[in-house]
Structures are given as structure tokens and as C-alpha cells.
Specification:
By secondary structure, the chain is an alpha/beta fold. The protein has helices spanning 16-19, 38-49, 79-93, 116-126, 128-144, 165-185, 219-234, 239-251, 263-274, 277-287; strands at residues 29-32, 53-58, 69-73, 98-101, 147-152, 190-197, 258-261. It has one domain (24-287): NAD(P)-binding Rossmann-like Domain (Rossmann fold, 3-Layer(aba) Sandwich), CATH 3.40.50. InterPro entries: KR_dom, NAD(P)-bd_dom_sf, SDR_fam, SDR_oxidoreductase.
Amino acid sequence: MLGLTKETSIPLKVKKKEAILMNTTNPGVALVTGASSGIGLATAKALRNAGFRVFGTSRRAAAERSDGITMLACDVTDDGSVAKLVERVLAEAGRIDLLVNNAGMGLLGAAEESSTAQAQALFDVNVFGVLRVTRAVLPAMRQQRKGRIINVSSVLGLIPAPYSAVYASTKHAIEGYSESLDHELRTFGIRVVLVEPAYTRTAFEDNLAKPDLLLDIYDATRASMDVINKKAIEAGDAPEVVARTIVEAATTIVPKTRYAAGTMARRVSLLRRFVPESAFDKSLRKQYGLPV
């Protein structure tokens, strides 16, 4: 992304108290949505290895696992399904200390090519799915006066994304929701944290939704964007890189507001903050093969 050829130096200094980790011998109970594959599965395994008792979700009932992860069916677009999920986890474990909102879907196409209904369906998973699960776990977290919520965002929650405008807008929404919610919940001993991956080597790209109102005028550029995205995915981070960042965000006593997951994500985050807007704009358009 952004066609950089030189490594960006990233400061690694943190306050001592931010480097202290929580008790990893018994860190508690974790719930990870969208844990059947990709980042979600890697995260569930990493949290299990870190000592958490882990419950993962998938839209359909999953086979019994032998790695200590309990998989449960949940459709994050359905209030009743979410309520049953949280009730079952609390019945079995008695508490929820960590929620990782990872379930999501993608969409590649010009903004004009998606109907309002298609955009609403994407928001129902990527945004309102996060809201549903978060609202369902908050009463238990407030009662125990302890909890952490990690929302898996994206660098596309920070930067423009041509031909991913609707998807990027869901991630921008999650950024605003998470930062605002964190301020509301700190009084109750609950923190809300963002983890922002860049391109990650998962099947996410293969499962991208296509626009429901395809227009010929966008065919060539849409196809070009598809090729660019696939190449970037192939060269991207392994899902385990993102999982390690999530474990760090979950176990640090005083977490940061957001964690960029992987070298490219950290680079993009720094560039977005410090590079002049005009230069950033020009670099992004060159990267995507758009006229500068």
C-alpha cells in the first residue's frame, strides 16, 4: 500500500505501566466472533495459548474441536442468536472477560454500484453486528467491574479506499464507535480497543461480495482493483501476526486506544498522521493505478 520502498522507523518506546501484562496464568474467559477461519481462528488459538478459556463463533454449527476452543453457532445479524450465545457462554463459564469482535464481510466495487439494501446488509454485519454482541456482553462485564472489548477494524478505517467505499465506511464507523464507547465504559473497569490490520493472508478476499448493480463504466477499473487487492493479500501478513497483536491488546494492563497490526499497518498509520494530505492523496492514487 502507498508504494513505499523504504522501511519507516517506528518508535517502540512505551510507558512502563503499558508494558506490564495481566496475569497470564488465568487471564479469564474470551469470546471471539468469526472464529472459524482466518484472523478469528488464529486469534482464538493464540488466546488459548495465552491461558484464556476461549469460546469462538461461526454462523453455522462447527465440528467439535480438540484444541480447547469451544465453537458455538451465532449469527451476529440476529438479536436472538446473539442473546443465546452470550447466555450459553455465561452459563458454562460464569463470566466474559474479553470480547473480540472479529466477524465481518467485505465488498469490492464502485460505491455507485451498490444498492442501499446491499450497503445496509454490509453495515448489519460489520457495524450493527459489533453493536449487538457488545451490548449483549456489557451487563456481565459491568457487574464484574472488569472487561475488555477488542474491535477488529482495518487500516481502511483510517484511509480512503477507492472501490471499497462502502466497506471502508463500516470500518470508519467502528473507529468512531469504539473510541466513544471506551470513554463511556472506563468508569466500570472496561476498556475498548481497536486493532487495525492491513492486508492479511486469509480467504477474506475470496469471499468478497460483488456489487448488486454492476455498471459497465466501472468494469475495467473494478477488475484492476481486484488484481491489486489479490496481489496485496498474497504479500500480506499471516493471520498469526494480527492474532499476536490482539493478544497484546488483550493482556496489557493499560491498553492503547488502537494497535496497528503488522509492518504495513504501522507504516500506513504513521503516514496518515504525518504526511501532508495532498502527498498522501497522490501516493494512494498511484498505488491504485488511478490518474493523479
